[in-house]
Amino acid sequence: MSNYQLAMKNRVLIIGGSGRIGSSVAADLVDHTQAEITITGRNPVTGNAVSSNLGSQVQFLALDLADKELLQEAIAQSQIVIHCAGPFHYRDAIVLKTCIENGVHYLDVSDHRSFTVKALNYQSEAEKAGVTAIVNTGIFPGISNSMVRHDVEQLDSAERIHLSYVVSGSGGAGLTVMRTTFLGLQNPFECWSDSKWQVVKPYSERETVTFPPPYGKTGVYWYDMPETFTLPDTFPVKTVITKFGSVPDFYNYLTWWVAKTWPASWLKNPPVIEFLANVSYKMTGVSDRFTGIGVAIRSQVTGIKNGQPACYCSTLVHENAAAAAGCGTGTLAQLILDGKLNKPGVWAVEQALPTDLFEQVMQSRGIEIQGGFLPER
């Protein structure tokens, strides 16, 4: 290994690292690795304050993604780049492309179908360059994908995947996540149902799902997540359902009302999205005091075991959704840094992370995932 390669080893660049999710990823890496971490953002005052709070492993770099020259320079000096600068509805794949050109591994916390498709189109280029690129890391998508993979592996054959998520208030995230929620209401989307693609409306078909305490029975709605199309690509199932809900339930009804009654032209108007995001963020600033900022995931996979119908269910509850997202991404970065995860190409999490490694890194972070076969009805 050359002196230059030695200098680059264990350097992690987190684009958008001064935000809530990006800083959570950095915090996880500080706790579990010896990596030299650079976080970026457009506001030096905020960025320097965040890096100072995270400790001596972390430094701040003022960076705008529009500055292609500085972006290229920062990426070239890293071993891994983690893209946390959402909303990803508006992003192209320039960061991934630059990583591939420089032989740098790549992770992101993207959560939108359009961006995921753009990234997956670089599969062959990443494979040829020896670059491991994993998209949609975090909590959901991210840890949720690995929960499904684990559950599928408990069956001889899987037929139906039902993923549900619920977040308390803001989830500890910032305005960007609020924007993402309302951007997800803009268009109907395709889901894999009964072995064919069918169109559903966002925030439709409310369903009551039972999560572990403190959530219990909670309403969830159709929501366009990358898992909606990556899971059927990974596993030969007949149906994949992805539904999302909020606590308190009042927020669900507000979001449902916006999705159902507001004209599509309003929801595609950036000032309207900004208005909704800001109002919601202020509301959760109050409700977070009572509901907390946690997250719960429920994965239920139905299929065949020993020639009989069977259903395996796993659940996760975490007190801080943003911190959990940091763990989901941080674990993958740690595995790449340690040389335990090397899979050139562009992959969704369930395609890249083996279940045994997933279980190891979750245990190392004290994240408990409960699971078992459900009794026959």
Secondary-structure content class: alpha/beta
How confident is the prediction overall: mean pLDDT?
93
Binned strand content: 25-35%
Poorly predicted runs are 1-7
How can the largest sheet be summarized? 7 strands, parallel
In helices, the fraction of residues equals: 40-55%
Radius of gyration: 20 Å
Side-by-side strand order of the widest sheet: 3-2-1-4-5-6-15
According to DSSP, the number of beta strands is 16
Give a structural overview:
The chain has 377 residues and is α/β, with parallel strands linked by helices. It contains 16 helices and 16 strands. The protein starts with a helix and ends with a strand. 52% of the residues are buried. It is globular and about 55 Å long. Residues 1-7 have low confidence and may be disordered. Helix content is 44%, strand content 27%. Helix 14 (321-337) packs across helix 16 (355-364). The strands form three sheets. A seven-stranded parallel β-sheet has the order 3-2-1-4-5-6-15, sandwiched between helices.
